[in-house]
Write a structure and sequence with these properties.
Strand content: 5-15%
Helix content: 40-55%
Shape: globular
Strand order of the largest sheet: 1-4-5
Length: about 325
C-alpha cells in the first residue's frame, strides 16, 4: 500500500480486515467502515462533497464534525433502502466509480473467513466482476481455506486471480536486519548464530522479532551466542506460560493430545498411521476429525507437497517449544 501511495499522486486505497466475520451483515459493516475510513483518508475535509458526491450515486454520505477536535465522522447509507446499511454490491459500485478517476487499490485481509458464511463467496464474485481494471489483493492466514475458495471447481471464485507466494526471508538479509537493530545497544551476532535463532523460530518473522526483542531487552554490549539465545527463549516461554495454558484449556483432550504429539515430533506425515494413532491413543477417524478442526483454527498448518508426504506442524513455533519442554 505504501508503494501504491508513492506511485500515484492521488491514490484511493480500500483496506478491510475480514477476520472473524459471522454473517453477511458483519461483512457489510466491515466493508462500509472500510469505505468510510478510505474516504476520510483520501479526500481533504473541505472538499468532501465536491470530490466524492458524484461517485456515491447509490449511497448517501453524511459528514459531521466533533467540536472538540476538527475530525470528520463519515457515514454511508443505502439510498435504495432508507435507513439501511449499504449492500456489498453498492459499496463495490462506489469503488468502481471512484476508480474511474483515482488510481484505486483494494486490499482484503483474512479473506478466508467469508467461506464460513452462506452466499458470501457468490456476492464477492459478483462484486469483483465489475472491478476489471482495479488491482485486488486478497490475503489470508489459513492457506488451506484460501485454496478451497480459489481452487475448488465448485467454488464461485474458482480460478479468480493468480497466487503470489510470500517466501521466507533470506538468512543473510534477516541477519543484517537483526545486526542493525542490535547495534543500538552495542550487541553483535554472527551470521551462523542469527541463522540458528531464525531456525528455532521456524523462520517466522513475528516469532523471530519477539525473541530478538527479549535478547535486546536483557543484554548490553555483548556478542550474542547460542547460550544467550536459548536463555532468552526460556524467559520468553516462561512469560507466555499462562497464555498457553489458557489456550490449551480451550481445546478438547483429543485436540490437546494431537498438538502435543506433533510438537514432540517437530512435525509428522501420515497422521492416520498406526504409529501416530498409538502415540495419541485415538482412532484414525478421530485423528482426522480433530486435525481438521485444528487446521481450521489455524493451530496446525500443512506444508505443500503430495498428500502422501504432506507435513503437519504447529503454526506457532513458541507453542511448539513450550509443549516440547513442559508437556
Amino acid at each position: 500500500m505504501d508503494d501504491f501511495r508513492q506511485k500515484y499522486k492521488k491514490p484511493f486505497i480500500f483496506f478491510v480486515d475480514l477476520m472473524g466475520v459471522k454473517d453477511i451483515d458483519s461483512i457489510k459493516f466491515r466493508l462500509k467502515s472500510g469505505l468510510e475510513n478510505s474516504i476520510k483518508e483520501a479526500f481533504p475535509i473541505k472538499n468532501f462533497a465536491n470530490m466524492i458526491g458524484d461517485f456515491l450515486s447509490n449511497l448517501k454520505l453524511s459528514v459531521s464534525f466533533e467540536s472538540s477536535e476538527f475530525s470528520p465522522t463519515i457515514s454511508l447509507e443505502s439510498l435504495e433502502y432508507v435507513d439501511s446499511e449499504a449492500t456489498i454490491e453498492e459499496i463495490f459500485v462506489s469503488l468502481d466509480n471512484i476508480s474511474a478517476k483515482f488510481p484505486t487499490l483494494i486490499v482484503l485481509d483474512e479473506f478466508q473467513d467469508i467461506s464460513l458464511i452462506d452466499e458470501a463467496e457468490s456476492l464477492f464474485r459478483n462484486a469483483f466482476q465489475q472491478m476489471e481494471s482495479v488491482p485486488i489483493i486478497i490475503l489470508g492466514s489459513k492457506k488451506h481455506m484460501l485454496r478451497d475458495i480459489f481452487a475448488m471447481p465448485s467454488s464461485p471464485l474458482a480460478n479468480f486471480g493468480h497466487d503470489v507466494g510470500i517466501e521466507e526471508i533470506e538468512y543473510s538479509k534477516y541477519h543484517k536486519y537483526i545486526a542493525e537493530r542490535f547495534a543500538q545497544k552495542k550487541l553483535k551476532i554472527s551470521e551462523s548464530n542469527a541463522q540458528f535463532l531464525q531456525n528455532i523460530m521456524q523462520r517466522q518473522p513475528e516469532a523471530i522479532n519477539l525473541l530478538c526483542f527479549e535478547i535486546y531487552q536483557g543484554n548490553q554490549g555483548k556478542t550474542i551466542d547460542k547460550q544467550i539465545i536459548l536463555r532468552a527463549l526460556d524467559q520468553l516461554l516462561d512469560q507466555r506460560n499462562k497464555r498457553f495454558e489458557v489456550m490449551l484449556y480451550s481445546f478438547s483432550k483429543a485436540e490437546e493430545k494431537i498438538l502435543i504429539a506433533i510438537a514432540k515430533n517437530d512435525w509428522i506425515t501420515k497422521p492416520q498411521s498406526k504409529d501416530f494413532s498409538a502415540q495419541v491413543d485415538l482412532t484414525p477417524r478421530a485423528i482426522k476429525m480433530n486435525i481438521d478442526k485444528l487446521i481450521d483454527k489455524a493451530m496446525l498448518e500443512i506444508e505443500d507437497g503430495s498428500i502422501a508426504d504432506a507435513r503437519y506442524s504447529l503454526s506457532d513455533p513458541l507453542l511448539k517449544l513450550y509443549l516440547q519442554r513442559f508437556r
